[in-house]
Amino acid sequence: MSMIRPSSSLSASPCCPSCGYRLPENARIRELETQVQLLSEKVSATKYDTSELRPPPSPTPPTSRISSFLFSSSSSSSTTTTTAAAPPTPPPDELAKERHLRLKAEEQLQQVTAELEDLSASLFQSANEMVAEERRARSKLEERVATLEKRDLEKRERLGVLERAVDRISRVREILGTLPAGERT
């Protein structure tokens, strides 16, 4: 018989590793897993075939990492059979009630898992959008820096031309200043 037990990784980290905030999703998942475990133990305690209590197998296996982790945490336990007289049958309404509670707990677990997957997807989408926006801003800044560097280089070249022209003018003045007064015309 298969029994779902709370996974050790969920119970080991009940809070956010970066800020320490206690995450309500983990607590809810643990609560639902505990309910499923209690219902499974009740069924095993009655020593009956639980195949009629199990929901029909799903046509597709879990596809997300979170779902596969949650659903793979089930472990099998051995059931003891007695060769003595057949055990008495429990009242049908009790079995129906347990079946209903188990299905409800599994449904809640699936809802929480789906919500957790949606939140994870939206978180990654937001992070990707932030990274893309940062890359666009960085690209724009790099273009601006390249434009300013180009202008700076052009201005330095013009300044060099002007400095050389001033040097030539200074040399011409020196030459003209050394000539006698009659030769300057």
Automatic annotation (TrEMBL):
Biased composition (Low complexity): 72-86
Molecular-function GO term, any one: guanyl-nucleotide exchange factor activity
GDP/GTP exchange factor Sec2 N-terminal domain ranges (all copies): 93-159
Coiled-coil regions, chain positions: 95-158
GO cellular component: cell tip; Golgi to plasma membrane transport vesicle
Key words, A-Z: Coiled coil
Descriptive protein name: GDP/GTP exchange factor Sec2 N-terminal domain-containing protein
Disordered: annotated segments: 43-95
InterPro entries: RAB3IL/RAB3IP/Sec2, Sec2_N
Pfam annotation, one family: Sec2p
GO biological process: exocytosis
Organism: Sphaerosporella brunnea
Domain of life according to the entry: Eukaryota
